[in-house]
Each structure stands twice: as C-alpha cells, then as structure tokens.
Amino acid sequence: MMPLNLSELISEEKVTAKIQEIGQKITDQFSGEEVTAICILKGSFMYYADLVRAIDLDIQCEFIGVSSYNGQTQSSGEVKVTLDLTTPLEGKNVVLIEDIVDTGLTMNFLKKMIMARMPKQLVTTSLLLKPAALKTDCTIDHVGFEIDNRFVVGYGLDYQGYYRNLPYVAQAQDFN
Ligand code: 5GP
C-alpha cells in the first residue's frame, strides 16, 4: 500500500452527528412509509450502514456497483455498472445513498437509471459534495458536508483500494 500524507478533515463525531440529522430528515420525509435504500458500492458502504440505522422506517436494502475512477484520483468521466439491483423499483420510495459527489456524473447517471424504473419517489443523499468539481447540474436532496476540491479518503473512500476503514474523512496532502 502506498502511504499517504493524511490530515483529518471531518472527525468521526461530526460524521456521526450529521448522519443522525439526515436520518431524521429522511424518516420525517417518508413518515411511516416503506423505503428501498440503495447503497452505491463500494465507497458508500460505511455511510450507508450508519444511515440506514438512523432511519426509523421499514427498509429494504439494495446494492448497486459502479466504477468511474479506476483507482486513480481523477474521474475518468465514464460510469460503468458493475453490479445491478436485484429488485424492481416501480412504485417504491427510493433513497439513493452516495459517499461523495465530485463531477456529478455518477449521481446523474444513476438518477436517470432509477427514474427509468418508475419509482414512486426518489430521494438522494451524499455525505460529501465538492461544489467546485461539478461538471454538470446535480441536485442532491441531503448533503452532509460541502468540501474543497481536494482528494479525500476514509469513511468508505479509498485510494487504490486502501484507507476505506478509516473512521473519519481525511485529506491527502499528496494530491491537488
Ligand atoms: P463523480 O462521478 O461525481 O465524479 O464521482 C463520484 C465517485 O468518484 C464517488 O463515488 C467516489 O467513488 C469517487 N470520488 C470522487 N471524489 C473522490 C475523492 O476525493 N476521494 C475518493 N477516494 N473518491 C472520490
């Protein structure tokens, strides 16, 4: 593993508090209805696991795999579905859960793909958003934190497959 020069950007405590807030908002938004929560693999697994536990509703858990970065620090601009959902979304309340929105290409690609499956409602959330990196209009219903256009790892986010298990979000000094 290539060691990165890291500094903490968002502490575990701040992440936890924000997730409780977003979980409560989603609970209120769908009040008493059932939802299907979609985890965008791999990076969202940690945010997803914490967020679904903060949503007090009947939940079905689904997973979708996409890749766009190929282990590099710049977006390739290409979105590939590597694992599809196992259940139809027609008529369902869907919560799409992303770790980070950078160019916005992945989120917009998935929103379009999900809307084509005719859900009752689609709500999107991303723990992190880099407003300065957006290359397309991309509206997200619940954003955890807006951050600078710098490469980050931890809390599910990787560099070359590593660092996903850090319990906080860290900025890599080695890039940008
Ligand atoms: P977008 O399509 O918005 O450019 O990129 C979304 C995906 O790129 C995220 O799901 C994530 O996997 C990856 N990504 C974007 N920015 C970063 C970053 O700063 N660090 C890491 N580790 N991945 C990122």
Top-tier CATH class = Alpha Beta
Q: What CATH architecture do you see?
A: 3-Layer(aba) Sandwich
Which descriptor suits the 3D outline?
Answer: globular
| Subunit arrangement of the protein | single chain
Tell me the strand percentage band.
25-35%
Which compounds are bound in this model?
guanosine-5'-monophosphate
Rg, alpha carbons = 16 Å
The largest β sheet comes out as: 6 strands, mixed
In what order do the strands lie side by side in the largest sheet?
Answer: 4-3-2-5-6-7
Write up this protein.
By secondary structure, the chain is α/β, with parallel strands linked by helices. It has a single domain, classed as Rossmann fold, CATH 3.40.50.2020. It is 22% helix and 31% strand. The mean pLDDT is 93. Guanosine-5'-monophosphate binds at residues 43, 68-69, 75, 98-107, 151-153, 157-159.
Condensed summary:
It contains three helices and nine strands. It has helices at residues 12-29, 45-53, 105-115; strands spanning 6-10, 35-41, 59-67, 80-83, 93-101, 121-129, 142-146, 152-153, 169-172.
Features:
single chain, 176 residues, alpha/beta, binds guanosine-5'-monophosphate, 22% helix, six-stranded mixed β-sheet
